[in-house]
Amino acid sequence: MSNRVKIILILLGALSIALLMWWRSEMHAQDVKNKVGEMKSYCIGRYVIDVPDRFEMIYPDASIGLPRPVRVIGLGPLKAAQLPDYVAGRIEELRAGVEERGVNFRYAGASQLRDIQLVATEKYNPYLTDSKSRFINVEAYYVRHGHLFRARADVFDTLDEVAHLGDGPQQVGLSEIADATWPRENDVIPSQPGICADRALIDLPVVNDMASAGFKDPDAFGVGMSFDTSEQRAAQVDIRENWLFGMVGARAKIAGISGRAGQKTSHRDRILWFEAHGVEGGAVGEPSREVRLELFKNDVDLDAEPYPVAEMEAIWEAVLPSVRRR
To answer: Pairing mode, if any, of strands 200-202 and 257-266?
Structure first.
């Protein structure tokens, strides 16, 4: 057999192996797609993630600034002329006392910063007649682009401190945040840059922002997903990797960030858990990015329908590579 024939046979063999590997990869990708079904994209912070269409987003949250984060949400269409009446209604609610996620708040004062209406609240115990908080929290209401927004920041001594919120190196002023706020729908990926919050987009460069959201299938108890991100212009503490539950993961890329991804199965604890965590930068004073993705199932039978182990693994394989920075 001539050398030329040998070379041709070697090349044909290599091509056959490559085609076989490609075919297996395509078949596996199709199998994952069949198990997972249609996917839907969501914007969280400065990132986009694709999740199964049957999952719904819960508790989207985004904040700007440290050590006093400012959380922004959109409250729907409203004319600027209607803002005083809206705030007056909120004050009346607070005078009577309101409960939000198991915490009781009441009215503690009001003020104004430019065209932003400030309402102070304090936590209290409704079962104690002399219950009084040492600090106040602030709700800031403003209208931009025909929509009402609320920004919240906690732990102030007085309302006068709000005007100095942007004085710190990792803080952003309330007026600057308000002027950078745009309305958006949670199921639409915006074309302009910025931080995706709950029904809001804050078009600001990175200073110090964090965002998170949960996802669940409303028809399947015990199955859920969470996604968390943070970006800092200059890290205040060392944020390099740490692992929940002592999970050992393989090296992986998450949104282009080096990290690790792993899986834990414990039939004794009735939990199936997937986690990916990536950190870029992370030393004190350096720009940093951090992302964390988790998928879990709690059930007596981890292989029970409608999410047996094989389907959970397929969801993980579909969601993890979808995470990307806008």
So the answer is: unpaired
Alpha-carbon dihedral sign for residues 290, 50, 55, 267: negative
DSSP 190: -
Q: Report the CATH architecture of 37-59+207-325.
A: 3-Layer(aba) Sandwich (3.40)
Structure tokens at 198: 């709950």
Compute the residue count for the chain.
326
- The pLDDT value recorded for residue 5 is 63
pLDDT recorded at residue 150: 98
CA 101 from chain centre, in angstroms, equals 19
Q: What angle do CA 245, 217, 292 make, to 5 degrees?
A: 35
In this prediction, residue 32 carries a pLDDT of: 47
Query: Is 67-186 a domain of CATH 3.40.1000?
Result: yes
CA separation (Å) from 197 to 97, 115, 120, 141, 304? 27, 21, 22, 16, 35
Helical H runs in the chain? 3-36, 83-96, 174-179, 309-319
Q: What pLDDT was estimated at residue 246?
A: 45
Profile the chain (326 residues) by mean pLDDT over runs of 10 residues.
67 59 48 70 97 95 91 97 97 93 91 96 85 88 98 91 85 94 96 96 94 95 94 74 53 89 83 90 82 92 89 94 95
pLDDT at 22: 44
Domain boundaries, the chain: 37-59+207-325, 67-186
Task: Tell me whether strands 271-280 and 250-254 are parallel, antiparallel or unpaired.
Answer: unpaired
**DSSP string over 295-323:** EEEE-SSTT-TTS-HHHHHHHHHHHGGG-
3-state secondary structure of 276: strand
